[in-house]
Amino acid sequence: MSAEVETSEGVDESEKKNSGAVEKENQMRMADLSELLKEGTKEAHDRAENTQFVKDFLKGNIKKELFKLATTALYFTYSALEEEMERNKDHPAFAPLYFPMELHRKEALTKDMEYFFGENWEEQVQCPKAAQKYVERIHYIGQNEPELLVAHAYTRYMGDLSGGQVLKKVAQRALKLPSTGEGTQFYLFENVDNAQQFKQLYRARMNALDLNMKTKERIVEEANKAFEYNMQIFNELDQAGSTLARETLEHGFPVHDGKGDMRKCPFYAAEQDKGALEGSSCPFQTAMAVLRKPSLQFILAAGVALAAGLLAWYYM
Questions:
Q1: Which residues contact 134 (CB under 8 A, 6 or more apart)?
Q2: Would you list which residues are annotated within the binding site for heme b?
Q3: Burial 273-300 (b: 16+ CB within 10 A, else e)
Q4: Which residue intervals are annotated with compositional bias (Basic and acidic residues) in the record (predicted)?
Q5: Residue stretches of the annotated binding site
Q6: How many CB atoms lie within 10 A of CB 183?
Q7: Whole-number CA gyration radius for the chain
Q8: C-alpha to C-alpha distance for 196 and 316, rounded to whole angstroms
Q9: Tens digits of per-residue pLDDT, 248-287?
Q10: Between the chain's N and C termini, which has fewer beta carbons within 10 Å?
Q11: Cα separation of 208 and 156, whole Å?
């Protein structure tokens, strides 16, 4: 009887040790920043994958004029992100993730801008209002809380290496863009031979950052904040698109002089009545100079740019 008890106790002790080891391994894995980001942004992920713009984009419902303006929004976003990454390339909380040759997109986006707008493209465009808040947030983080910069870099670049490749094919097919890559250089990572292996390397580097749990939690919070910024912009754009569409149906296309007079912009009529936007410049100013029906197209284009970022996360 005593032998049976000893054997039973030995088995129980062994099972406890094995169980403890598994639990410790799970805890260590869940403490990895990549896992924390995956789990911590799951809800935002779910919201993103169900947006109408994402569904439409996958179906190829996109106009060339809108894609041009989406590229504009991406250009300003990545210019800000890569400026702050350059600023913090030696910061211990970011240095291991500094891969300018492999990841940086500004140069590629410059080529796309030249393709769509011509050599004098810089004179034709400005940062869309829809992208401005996110740009400002990136600059703030880079200059004041660089340990959180990883949230934005990971969100953007890992998505580009994943869902971005799907977007490239959709855009080339829907817009009849050259198969040689003109207009879609943004999606081409010439210095990344194997996207899957590179993403694994990037996550490993990220998980090896010397960060305490509080900082990791702040990074996850920042990633969710990036999603929230996008969703707020998306909702605003959706509302603006509906307003302009309603104006078009009821009264014909709304009048706008393209000179930045906010009082003639129908989207902001409600806010103007409140006096909230007195003295502001029109966010559609650049689009008016480029496109035939700029106000509506500018809104939709910014929505496409947002959808691209959300769709990239969907495929990560």
A1: 77, 226, 229, 230, 233
A2: 38, 45, 154, 203
A3: eeeebeeeebbbbbbbebbeebbbbbbb
A4: 13-27
A5: 38, 45, 154, 203
A6: 23
A7: 24
A8: 10
A9: 555 554 444 444 444 444 444 444 444 444 444 444 444 4
A10: N
A11: 20
Check whether domain 60-245 has CATH 2.60.40.10, yes or no? no
Q: Give percent of the chain above pLDDT 70.
A: 60
Helix H or strand E segment including 143:
helix 129-144
Altogether, the residues listed in the chain come to a count of 316
What is the DSSP track for 193-205?
S-HHHHHHHHHHH
| End-to-end Cα, the chain, rounded Å | 57
Pinpoint the alpha helices (H) of 194-293. 195-207, 213-251, 269-274, 285-290
Instruction: In whole angstroms, give the CA distance from residue 157 to residue 164.
Output: 9
**What distance in Å separates the CA atoms of residue 115 and residue 186, rounded to the nearest whole number?**
12
- In whole angstroms, give the CA distance from residue 167 to residue 316: 13
pLDDT value of residue 234: 63
Q: Report the Cα 284 to chain-centroid distance in Å.
A: 22
Spell out the alpha helix ranges (H) of 32-97.
33-40, 42-49, 52-58, 64-87
